[in-house]
Task: structure prediction
Amino acid sequence: MKCSPALFALLTLLGTGSAFAQEAVRGNPDHEALLAASDPKLAANKRLVYDFWREVFEGGHVELAPKYMTETYIQHNPLVASGRDAFTGFLTKFVQPKPIEPKVKSPLVAILAEGDLVVFVFARELEDPKDKTQKYTTSWLDMWRIENGKMAEHWDAATKQ
Result:
């Protein structure tokens, strides 16, 4: 029996069942390995952002922000104004101080550092918009520019909601 190329492609896709499946995005539990760098400056920049994430962002200790952020912190997230005070004012609406954990709780996939930039890649689990009973994973990226040992600028994938 002869089969047209279009029919063959359709049957192949239907037969595999996984043609549209994705590989799950998973965090790396070895944070010390993620923080390592052969260049001590890059390792220090990674650690700066990591400790900020643990203490200020996840721990809710906005009073520690001056330790990590420049006063003139530039924000490229459309939901938050620039400036350290604007960031801390925004964050206090969503977090309450709690004990600071020894490790970042968010599922980190990678921490990358090059020059004065640090990138965190996180695994995220979201509700499938086509089937609210299902979840899927994807990635989220945050990037910071470090200036004189503090976070001076931030980018992420946030959109207006």
Observations:
- The chain has a mean pLDDT of 89.
